[in-house]
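Lines hold sequence, tokenised fold; shown next:
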Amino acid sequence: MEKSPKSPKLLFSFRAFLGFLVFIGLVALYMQRVNMGISIICMVNHTWVAENSKIYKSEMKLSTNLNKQETCHLAQKNSSLTDGQFQWPKKTQGMVLSAFFYGYFLTQIPGGWLSIKIGGIRTFGLSILLGSITTLLIPFASTQNIYVLLGLRFLTGFFHGPVFPSLGTLWSHWVPPNERSRILGLATSGVQFGSIIALPLGGFLCIHGFSGGWPSIFYIYGSIGLIWSILFLIFMSESPKNQKCISNQESCYIIQTTKKSPHKPKSTPWKELFTSKICLSIYLVGFCFNWGGYLYLTQIPTYVRDVLKFDIQSNGILSSIPFIANWVVIFVSSFCADYLITKKILSKLAVRRLFTGLGMYLPAIGLIFLSFVDCSMPYLGVILLTLGLAFNGCAGTGGFFINCHEVGGPFNGILIGIQNMIGTIPGFAGPYVVSLITANQKQEEWKIVLWITSVLYFFGCTVYIIFADVNLQHWAKVDDSKNVKEQINDEELNFKLLDNK
């Protein structure tokens, strides 16, 4: 009778430590991703933008007959603006905010392929290393030419693109399936924590930072990523077999439980990856989810300034509050999802549908209410933003994103890459569309943006719930008879590890 190694406790284990390392890496990654959203408020001469808007002169003429909304708008306008050196109209600002995502879009599928070829650890570490270097160069590029700046933001996105596809490969070698919701919940919460740190710190550095304020944001955020990635690449190995500072028991446990996944087929099933109903529904829900997610990520500081009329330091602090709530919910929802599945309270399919619904339907409703909030009720606006982004966290760790690991098997890295590639389209299309709709920085214009986002949330979630599946797809399986010899060798390796104890 086969003997299985004892399962080491997750707490204080090396796999939990790896989850923490990835968490720190994602903190650095998202500090670099969101830095432009807060920095641009200090970089742009908003007085110049306002005076060149189509409605500026008409507002001045009507200033003697103001209603409540207009009074709020004009009274708080000067205090909410921090004028910088760059005379960029709203369209140019949209280009600056979206340039990152053009590069990010291009390296999603190649990132999944690269992680298979050279390993998830190397791909993950190198992506953040190279992105950190380009982030450090942003202040210099900004003073040279707008196209140099756009090019560097494009390269930052290009280098960051393989990060999430590489994590699919990394988890498949390091994390047993029954622990993935918890460890992914810990690791991916770095996304929210990075935003929590970056926004208020960025608001502070805009005014009090060295090198003129806003450049210090890029220097500090880039340095954090650079230091982390160098240490990560030096000390981490691609698999438990070669990793130092891990016990034999835990190494054996990880190898045995992750090897239970089917072996990699000879070729990538590209046709099925682009025609399977479950894959198409994951791509669609990812697109709609990211439209809202990138709206929060890149546009919250601008919305808080344009509509709620907070000054730059308050802006940074208040813009981070929704991400704090989102971070908490991600932790809670990841454990709740695992609990509901392991205790057999709900089926895995029901959990994926439930958490995706909570993460998209509730924010959609919140955005509808938010569209009617103006600067006379600024804190109500912050509350609605917070509740919307908080519930948004349910869809990731308990919902559709985990689904990629379940249906894609050995191809989950490529599946995540395709999903991320399609999901990145809102990253560059969204800021540009928002800049066109909100050219005059009016609340009525932002209402259109919020309603578009709400409709996309409802549509994407509904389609996913209809076609959701949690079973390993037939195209991700292999003929077991072709892999008997390889499986026997794997079992011999496991018993050798046991014997070495």
